[in-house]
Amino acid sequence: MTHTSGLAALEAELERQRTLLNLPPKAWMPATDGPNGGDVLDVAVIGAGLCGLAANLALRMEGIFKVRLFDRAAKGREGPWVTYARMETLRTVKEAAGPAMGIPALTFRAWFEAQWGEDAWDRMDLAPRTMWMDYMNWFARVTEADIVNDCDVEGIAPKGNLLRLATTQGTVLARRVVIATGLDAMGAPRLPAVARHIPKGKVYHSADVFDTKTLKGKRVVVVGAGASAMDNAATALEEGCARLDLLVRRPAIPVIDKFTGTGSRGMTSGFVGLPDRVKWEIMNEGDRFPVPPPKHSVERVARYDNAFLHVGAPVTAVEEAADGIRVVTPRGALDADVAIFATGFGIDLAERPELAAFAPHIRTWGDVMGAEKAAENPGLAAHPYLAPDFAFLEKREGACPALSKLTCFAYPSVPTHGKVTSGIPSSSEGARRLASGLVRSFMAEDADIHLARFRDYDRPDMTGEEWLPSDLAMTA
């Protein structure tokens, strides 16, 4: 049973905590007029999921309020939580403060306990996925996020000193644009070439949104060894599939989570300062030891008698058949009705037409590390090499100055900034870094305006008559 009165009390406490922290600060950004006096945003954020909401709050805490978020999803469905995510619970520990930006009343725990109490919190192991979506919707409301839903951004291009966004709901001008679109921010779901000719309905990527009830009675193949693969396999089994075969190209399911095992405040806050060669080696090693699925996700699948695991079985071909498909591996072939490829996301700027004006100019890790290193890991080499404030950098200096106004606050920033945009735990750290970087950038750009403000300020704090000079003559 939920307690709306408890939530109202929490929101009152949130206001008190904001007051104690002197939040929000006063607005300080100078107004910007567009061509013909049109409206100009200080920051346009593409994406209103976890990273977008965290970025918005961090900017408000820095006194930047002319911010708007644009999301292709319907209201209340931003992010993956109730679209293609299929885990029962979050993989993150429930205690993670996430995007709360150091404000206790904004945490998931505070939100949960206000409605269900401390005992229920103690009984809960991990947060249910759909409950997290409810929390995100509340978070968006109480942090006053200005979200435009059902809105695709189709193009971003320089417009004088501004950036022009062409959206399905009209044109928008902004001084800065933050890309906060998660895993596929600079590419698309990575469906292997061997499966691309098979029509939807017989082949899906794990990021596709489809009715999982259609898997009932079907022979289902899932390809992959990570959390998403296990979540999709479990969902198919729970929907009543006839048979589930999980294909893993490696000789075993990964069991070592290097990033969690070596996680620390140093890795969170300090990774961005590591030498490039060390960043590269950490990320390259991480690709050799991919993140394993959670133990409870594997057990969710393994308890079914009609689930079968095949290791050392990369998919070499997918063939359409009269009664379904045939999935071919070096170990043999499987006949199936549906194959779901949980094969991640790739960096592919050709898949991002909205970035066409910038794509040829974006510096990548391959550009920085050189051809020999890039050949070792082309996927890693394709990631953007970013500035300390998440801004894109130019391949050739001076070729596209507007790139400095475009930032990547999404998963592709991980090789440069570490895992501050890859999930819930460090989202506040990343958002603070982004916001402070944007503040520095705006101050530098508006330096003459701020100098003039300083010179022109003439509001007296006193009348000058509080203590008048003495009439007595001074003696030596």
Overview in brief:
By secondary structure, this protein is an alpha/beta fold. The protein has 16 helices and 17 strands. The mean pLDDT is 95.
Topology overview:
Elements: H1 4-20, E1 41-46, H2 50-61, E2 67-70, H3 108-116, H4 118-123, H5 129-142, E3 147-148, E4 153-159, E5 162-167, E6 170-179, E7 187-189, E8 203-205, E9 219-223, H6 227-238, E10 243-247, H7 258-261, H8 265-270, H9 276-288, H10 295-302, E11 307-310, E12 317-321, E13 324-329, E14 332-336, E15 338-341, E16 345-347, H11 365-369, H12 371-376, H13 378-381, E17 406-408, H14 414-417, H15 427-445, H16 447-456
Helix pairs in contact: 1-3, 2-15, 6-10
Give an overview in words.
The chain is of the alpha/beta class and 476 residues long. Helix content is 31%, strand content 17%. It has 16 helices and 17 strands. The protein has helices at residues 4-20, 50-61, 108-116, 118-123, 129-142, 227-238, 258-261, 265-270, 276-288, 295-302, 365-369, 371-376, 378-381, 414-417, 427-445, 447-456, and strands spanning 41-46, 67-70, 147-148, 153-159, 162-167, 170-179, 187-189, 203-205, 219-223, 243-247, 307-310, 317-321, 324-329, 332-336, 338-341, 345-347, 406-408. Strands 1, 2, 3, 4, 5, 6 and 17 form a seven-stranded mixed β-sheet that branches. A five-stranded parallel β-sheet has the order 8-15-9-10-11, covered by helices on one side. α1 (4-20) runs antiparallel to α3 (108-116) and α6 (227-238) runs parallel beside α10 (295-302). The longest helix is centred in the C-terminal third of the chain and has 19 residues, at 427-445. The N and C termini lie far apart (84 Å). The mean pLDDT is 95.
